[in-house]
């Protein structure tokens, strides 16, 4: 889609800033979710995901700055509010793995990363019109997001029976 029109920098910067704000909430959600998986074979994967999500947030901020945009003051304030809200996880309050809320939490985390993947795809699509964007860097970020989705999906697949199949009664439990 080629046009002689230039960029609407207010919209462009606003879009990136909205994703930056969402990335803070996402980072907090992933940090919160690590508690669900502590003590399981998936704990290491969740901690790795937190590191990747944090790196993506830093990369997005660096991209915004490289494009000559700044963090919106309003979005900065909202980011601080998201930090506070992100410490509370209404999807899986009790951090139980053997409940449907855990599946909903994994689905939500996947959706957050899919939104980020869509952003990278949009930037890749616009890159030919914006020489400030580095295609190889965007493709690396796109691949990293896809890897994150794959990791979340592997946790979901590997642990789905805990949530949806009847569990054996525990020794000593009343029947």
Helix percentage: over 70%
Mean pLDDT: 84
The appropriate CATH architecture is Up-down Bundle
Q: How many angstroms does the end-to-end distance come to?
A: 65 Å
Total discrete domains: 1
Tally of contiguous helical segments: 5
Which shape, going by the Cα principal axes?
elongated
Task: Provide structural commentary.
With 175 residues, the chain is mostly helical. It has a single domain (9-163), classed as Up-down Bundle (Ferritin). Helices cover 71% and strands 0% of the residues. It is built from 5 helices and no strands. The chain has helices at residues 9-37, 43-66, 73-86, 100-126, 135-164. Helix 1 (9-37) runs antiparallel to helix 4 (100-126), helix 2 (43-66) runs antiparallel to helix 5 and helix 4 (100-126) runs antiparallel to helix 5 (135-164). It is elongated, with a radius of gyration of 19 Å.
Keyphrases for this structure?
elongated; Ferritin; mainly alpha
Brief synopsis:
This protein is mainly α and 175 residues long. It has one domain (9-163): Ferritin (Up-down Bundle). It has five helices and no strands.
């Amino acid at each position: 889609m080629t046009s002689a029109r230039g960029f609407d920098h207010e919209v462009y910067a606003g879009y990136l800033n909205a994703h930056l704000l969402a990335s803070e909430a996402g980072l907090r959600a992933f940090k919160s979710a690590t508690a669900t998986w502590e003590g399981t074979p998936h704990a290491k994967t969740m901690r790795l995901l937190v590191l990747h999500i944090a790196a993506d947030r830093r990369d997005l901020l660096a991209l915004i700055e490289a494009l000559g945009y700044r963090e919106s003051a309003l979005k900065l304030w909202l980011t601080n509010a998201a930090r506070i809200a992100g410490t509370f996880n209404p999807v899986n309050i009790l951090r139980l793995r053997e409940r449907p809320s855990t599946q909903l939490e994994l689905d939500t985390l996947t959706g957050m990363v899919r939104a980020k993947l869509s952003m990278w795809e949009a930037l890749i699509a616009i890159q030919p019109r914006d020489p400030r964007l580095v295609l190889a860097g965007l493709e690396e970020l796109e691949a990293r997001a896809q890897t994150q989705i794959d990791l979340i999906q592997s946790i979901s697949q590997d642990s789905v029976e805990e949530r949806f199949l009847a569990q054996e009664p525990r020794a000593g439990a009343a029947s």
